[in-house]
Amino acid sequence: MPNLILRVVSKILIPPIIIFALYVQFHGDFGPGGGFQAGVIFSAAFILYALVFGLDAAENVISTSVLRFLASLGVLIYAGVGIATVFLGGNYLEYTVLASTQVAGQHLGILLVELGVGITVFSVMLLIFFTFAAKGRA
Amino acid sequence: MMQEHLSIFLVILPLVAAPIVAIMPRGRYAWAFSFVVAMVCAVIAGQQLWSVTHHGVISYALGGWAPPWGIEYRIDSVNAFIAVIIAGIAAITLPYALLSVEKEIPEHKQPLFYSAFLLCFAGLLGITQTGDIFNVFVFLEISSLSTYALISMGQKRQALTSAYQYLIMGTLGATFFLIGVGLLYSQTGTLNMMDLAKLLPDVVGLKTVHTGFAFILIGIALKLALFPLHLWLPNAYTYAPTVITVFLAATATKVAVYVMLRILFTIFPDGFVAASPAGDLFIILGIAGVIIASVYAIYQTNVKRLLAYSSVAQIGYIALGIGFATSLGLTASIVHLFNHALMKGALFMAVGAIIYRIGTSHISELNGLGRKMPWTFAAIIIAGLSLIGVPGTAGFISKWYLVLAALEQQAWFAVAIILLGSLLAVIYIGKIVETLYFKPAKEKQTTIQEAPILLLAPTWLLVIANIYFGLNTELTVGIAEQAVQALVGTPK
């Protein structure tokens, strides 16, 4: 097998990259970070995998149709939180009504919204990469 | 209370529908869903206009953060009226879209096509609903980005280059707008339009504010295709899928005009436009646009392109009304916004019906088709008469008010230009009519039939609207006058 070092190093690196992405995602409300950055880092792990192990292997892990679904899902989570707040009696995206206290509500709201952002950014980044990478194949 | 939520749902509904449509397996499902959304939006927009004219301004604080700190959606009779135009045109375009899109867009791309359409729709509605100038930029980008994608889905390869051309020009325009907004923000510290209107009079003498004003002016002028910044428009309209041409011609430039009106007359204090060179600039460029674009239109050999140049000329009329900066001039501009959406929508739909049957809109291929497709031909004639401004059609009303506004200013030259513009329109509409009816049909076209009812019905709906609003001006002119009041009226 060629490129033994590359393969081993990336296998070691990919789990910490994903953990770091999740840290940036869920620590975004207290420190620097948030859905956008986390989504990009998360997709970087997959792109590294695709670069080292090949496009087909990467598409076996996560297919483009799943990615398209996830890209839509993220937007729907974001907008859905907004609609939920309207039905709970607040204005659109007024997180306060999501929980019993204002702080808890704002906290929960921003976490959910950023989760939506993260999912969409992750899947769109990968979709763009797959689209360009697959150009040479056909 | 419910009313305010309706106003936000006008934007949210298409925005949520877009990702749902994107993952639908078949084009027909996507179409049906989009159609329902557009119909609901049209009803909400109509209800909103009624509420605004009867109960006054609607204000909605997004996320519960009170304006001017949070984003405010603020709807008065101007934006309610524009929202009705957009939602109405979308609701009329979508029934037309079913057959046209099935013919022009490959099946696997149709859900994405409708998704981009809904995003564009949401963006345009968002621009009208919001009372926050940075939010305007965001929605401007949402609608523009989806428009680039939609134009590039045209059948010919040129669609890609025209989408790219529009992308460059549109991005320049949006960037200029953003720079201008940034400069205003640096001097006032606010992005809320009403707050800006309150704070700007104190700093209006500063060079920074003047520079910001110039940046915004140029940026939006690019978006609304004011002559000579119109270069992206003819290609974009010619090569876009038919449905998109109809939708864009009737809505996109209108929204840009709305943003221009808002900034010139609501945000900047009274008399600022009259004192700045902007007013004269609009009159000069409006006149040049009417004449030059009309002459260009006469020499086009593709009917879609001919109508696109005619659109540039019509924007010239609107600019003329803005340039007068009187309430009569603005009324004329706003009435023409509405009427132009009706006539260009009808004309592009009728031409689209011809494209549906013969696959091209090149004028040499249309010989004698008028006798094969009498209903389509009649629609072109009536909408064409409206474009010329014949009494009894909607086009006459807007020209009439524009001439009144020019007479009020004793701008005799402008009056002559408006009449000359109508004469030029007679020539280019005459050119289409002559080819369609008086030239002998080509032999291979003997089997051409009338367009299907699903294409004709929306076209005729707009044609009848052209006549209705030409005879009954209470609704359009009445609301336009109210809208002008809301535009120039002092903020509370």
Beta-strand proportion of chain A: under 5%
Please report the number of helical segments of chain A.
5
- Distance between the ends of chain A: 26 Å
Instruction: Count interface residues per chain for the largest interface.
Output: A-B, 19 and 16 residues
Give the overall average pLDDT of chain A: 89
* Estimated helix fraction of chain A: over 70%
SS-based structural class of chain A?
A: mainly alpha
Oligomer kind: heterodimer
Strand content of chain B: under 5%
In one word, what is the shape of chain B?
Answer: globular
Distance between termini of chain B?
21 Å
Low-confidence stretches of chain A: none
Structural class of the secondary elements of chain B?
A: mainly alpha
Query: Helix tally of chain B?
Result: 20
Output the helix-strand order of chain A. Answer: HHHHH
* Rg of chain A computed from alpha carbons, rounded to a whole number of angstroms: 18 Å
N-to-C SSE string of chain B, H for helix and E for strand: HHEEHHHHHHHHHHHHHHHHHH
Task: Sketch the major β-sheet of chain A.
Answer: none
Compute the number of strand runs of chain B: 2
Description:
- The complex is a heterodimer of chains A (138) and B (492).
- Chain A is an all-alpha fold and 138 residues long.
- Helix content of chain A is 76%, strand content 0%.
- Chain A has 5 helices and no strands.
- In chain A, helix 1 runs antiparallel to helix 2 and helix 2 runs parallel beside helix 5.
- The radius of gyration of chain A is 18 Å and the shape is elongated.
- Chain B is mostly helical and 492 residues long.
- Chain B has a domain at 277-492.
- Chain B is 78% helix and 2% strand.
- Chain B has helices spanning 2-22, 27-55, 77-104, 110-129, 133-152, 158-188, 193-203, 207-223, 232-239, 242-267, 272-275, 278-298, 303-324, 327-358, 369-372, 374-388, 394-408, 412-438, 453-471, 474-488, and strands at 58-61, 72-75.
- In chain B, strands 1-2 form a two-stranded antiparallel ribbon.
- Classes of the chains: A mainly alpha (138), B mainly alpha (492).
- The interface between A and B is medium-sized, with 19 and 16 residues.
